[in-house]
Amino acid sequence: MFFKGFSRRRLAKIAAWSALGISASTAGAARQPAASAPNFRGGNPAAFPKDFLWGTATSSYQIEGAVNEDGRGLSIWDRFVHLPGKIIDRSTADVANDHYHRYKEDVQLIRELGAKAYRFSIAWPRVFPEGGGTPNAKGLDFYSRLIDELLANGIEPFATLYHWDLPQALQDRYGGWRSRDTAKAFADYAGYVTARISDRVKHIFTINECARLVQAGFGTGLDAPGLNLPQKEINQVRHHVALGHGLAVQAVRAHGRAGTKVGPAENVEVCIPAIETPANIRAAEIAARELNAGYLTVILEGKYTEAFLAYAGANAPSFTADDLKTISSPIDFVGINVYMPNQYVVAAEDGSPFRLLPFAPTYPHMDSNWLRIGPEAMYWGPRHVAKLWNVQSIYITENGTSAADQVTADGKVYDIDRIMYLRNYLSHLARATSEGLPIKGYFLWSLMDNFEWSDGYEKRFGLYHVNFETQRRTPKLSASFYREVIKRNAVV
Ligand code: NOJ
Fold first, then answer.
1. Catalytic residue among 64, 209, 266, 452
2. Phi-psi region of 390 (alpha: psi -120 to 50; beta: other; left: phi over 0)
């Protein structure tokens, strides 16, 4: 053997590579980074930064129930779920997970995971049953007790001010987000809440998923308030939501204790270079900026992009220079919900800045039809945010999957599909943090199965299985997986 140390197989491989014009060292480099490459942190490429914050997430309407208790007002979702044909399994969230009464037990579920943070949302109609005016003290009391319970258990509370449960009174009075008056009412509510919780809550998210609430609430009508508006009005609604975000940021600053941090929690449109070449990466960045133009881009740049305005044409929203200033009020972090690849992108050959590729009918998805599998979304989502806008602090405010979970005869739930999904997404999150992207924490959606909007209780996203007849919570295998991830601070 003259090539000492090389097996016959290895030699055959080198021959094949050189036929393709690839040298052995290049091929090796592509597969295996050198030991000095940044993703080998302490010898473990799957490890996360030391102070990385692991959490779980829920939202008020999806878990609380108790819709008529302690003076809570009606929300647009209460009205919507009781209309015929809106919810697939004809369910409502009148009881949901009964979390309003069981919050102490649920805090123990978080604690058992070893999670150090919890993202929950505050129901506006509990605090202001009429949307504004006289507050209902008992409403905020509930969140105050929840916050105390979390802190007593070593869990840091992260509060979302708006996760879609708009007071019905504002829908009736102003047409909800169709009017800028709702944006103003949102700021008043934000200031009121912040003044009372920022002694204990240091991170506040303004609005959850503007993109979905606008599209599904006012475009397709699949979510409350269930409208099908023309494009111009949809764009106007989105502008009002962005304005509501900006006004709320200012209200949090005005009423929060020193050190209170605030930012959005958006389902960023994730644009992935189909093949990682410099030209495709650039194209994906431009696509990310344009496809998020109606919300994140205007928040972070203080203007609607030229392409957005040109594309919208006569349907562009009406706005003032002052609005743009408000919308782009400085924020402390960007929260992004990352579930799937929204777009695969390549550089265009016809002079356009990018080309979006179609999804094949066979493209795989999880139990929810919309939930395409594409773990690299977890890398490109935050990377575009950090790179395009020089954002220094990012939270993954949601990630997770539905699965058709079954409790088996031994009383356990073996959700290995969820573990597969999470492991792959977390590996790309590890890639992102190992390259130094400023991601501070991750909130797994969701702590427990809950009311999945128009899918009712048919789609389960929880780490804990919930029997909605008995309210029994059972940890799934994925809960053990996540506990291990948290314990080792690494993908396992
Ligand atoms: C994002 C939403 O914020 C949350 O309410 C929903 O349950 C999950 N996506 C899963 O669809």
1. 209
2. left
